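Extended Data, panel c. Modelled sequence:
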Amino acid sequence: MRRLWHRAFLDRRPSTSLGLFRLAVAFTVGAHMIPSFFHMDDNYLATAFKTHNYSFFPLWALQLVAQSPDSVVWSFVVLFFVSLAAFALGLYSQLSCILMTLSCYYFYALNNYHIGTLSFDILLVTLFLMCITNYHGDFLSLDSLRRGDVRSYKRLRPVFLQRLLQLQLAWTFWYTALSKITARGNWITDNPYYYLMHYPEIGVVRDFPLRSWLGQHPDLCYNFGIALLVFEFSIPFLWFLPQTRAIGITLGIVFQIMLWVTLHVPTIFLFLFPPMMLLFIHPTVLVRWIESRQAAHAQRGRAVLFYDGQCGFCLASVKRLRVLDLFGWVDPLDFHTQPDLAQLHPELTPERCRGEMVLLEPNGTLFGGFDAFRRLSLRLPLLWGCAPLVYLPGARWVGTKIYRWVAHNRYLLHRNPVCATNQCAVGTEGNGSSSKI
């Protein structure tokens, strides 16, 4: 029994999938909450009509939140956006998750009328579980960048958080199936799906192409309802069994898409549940896929990023670059170790490598300065969010100006413990030239 418990909850595995799940949770929370802030007068401020979920919150908590003046409400809006951004980026991921969860609980206690009780209950349970650990900050996060952990995607963590999230999803499906045979409108003795097809057009059911046809075939609706009931009872078993896991995840995602196409379902059913299903994939599968991409880039040839190996600030930046370069696309090279840079590219010179960041791609194309950063934003996963911004019309002109100013005043950035000798600043002050950024 002890061995089974250890294997189920304490077995150590890479936390890669939890880092990806963090992004899905942040997106779901944003999609669920941000639209409600567009109507503060109707939803949260003193002018709003409010209802409360007494089954979820104790009475004293509801009474305390109900006394909030509008200034406190707006303060929680700010807290929500700051913590959501920090959590999505993986900056102090556990603390930011706690603050984000606290703000979500606050708004839910303030008024649950517009949110939808069941869906938000499920989301808050997920957030509560995510607050337990900081494992979701190990991968694809500013925390991993801050620590400079090149192998963050392989860091081993106890699997208990991942297992709890899996059990939450399985129980949600089982609970939904149980409610179909125990509540009023029993799906075995009655035909609720047929009744759904005759709901008013403005309601829970979308006007999908087959709706009218299904509404004319009650027997087909009954059989479909029974099939749906069997599916919800059996799908968790497919997830937990390794032999059927792939087909179970595929069927589960198709089922969620079908729900979204036919019903007006909350955002969590489309944005949160499919990523939760992917948590059933063993993390080592993701690690092997990442390393296969690294091997492929090594075989085809990597891009070369030239840096100043005599600069402590540059060395620290290269260390962080290796964390950013998840798929092994870039090979940093100290230009001092290359006697003849012109052999690599005729436009390469020591002076240029000191003056700006220079990137040489495998096809022989050379990029420098802001253009090099733009190319890196397309290749390094943690910079993908910057790519749409740096490729906007006019971004190159603005970015080049900013880059040149930073490069020219680079010595100002070196008054820190990373650059113990402050060699770059000395060199800049002595000869008027700036080293490579």
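Residues 180 and 244 are 25 Å apart (CA to CA). This feature is highlighted in the accompanying rendering.
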